[in-house]
Amino acid sequence: MKAVVITGASTGIGKTTALRLSQAGFTVFACVRKEADASALQQEMDVKPLLLDVTNESHIQAVVEEVEEVVGEAGLWGLVNNAGIVVAGPLEFLPVAELRKQFEVNVFAQIAVTQAFMPLLRKATGRIVMMSSIAGRFASPFLGPYAASKFALEGFSDALRRELKEWKMFVSLVEPGRVVTPIWEKSVRVAEVTSKQLPPQAQTLYGKKLNLMRERAKHGTTQGVSPDEVARAVEHALMATRPKIRYVVGPDAKVATLLIRVLPNRLLDWVGRQRAD
Length: 277
Description:
The protein has helices at about 10-25, 35-45, 55-70, 95-125, 145-165, 185-195, 200-220, 225-240, 250-260, 265-275; strands at about 5, 25-30, 50, 80, 125-130, 170-175, 245-250. It is of the alpha/beta class. The chain has one domain (about 5-275): NAD(P)-binding Rossmann-like Domain (Rossmann fold, 3-Layer(aba) Sandwich), CATH 3.40.50. Helix 4 (about 95-125) links the parallel strand 4 (about 80) and strand 5. Helix 4 runs parallel beside helix 5 (about 145-165).
């Protein structure tokens, strides 16, 4: 039975993907940060929950050792780097510490987890699936930190895919648009805390648009594609004979991809500004 590790599996896309892959016959190691989430997963589905803070290198190494004890010389068939956070706000005023936090989770942690699991992935000639976003190809106002982290993840993934081609190891990117997932609810709470740390001038210049952005983010908990659509893309990336390099998921993501291909940059800037107005 092929084994897969999924990070960020407590809710949303990660949890749905864990269930889907378990039902498809994979041995699923579902990584979460909290004991309560691990217990809930074990009760709801046939997976092996593991506690993992992706920003903690000792945690990562401990999880690699736990997985290796189970898979042995068969190695690891798949790694799904799904863990991520959203940091939002006006780049003119956003504390650099917030940007570092965004990159620590969405970029450096993904690299650290990938590097740590590479020996087990090599044993199985395994596959890597990176959970990106259409924001990794189109940066919207006030989502600059999130978009920048996804652009970085896309660059890392493209380079890694080309480096591993010699060994027939696939690296796929999944690029959803808006998905009905708790990440948007969490992002609203984080944005509200962050906005209180911004200087008064930030509210004067951007207050109206920031409030609108938060309202739209709240709609993200009820509007968008189902997490199962994203999970299907992950499953295809892990099971297909020739997996895609990029999986664009959702009508808004597909429209954005088309606009990126056909519109000049100034028109794309106009489209981006409309999203903030």
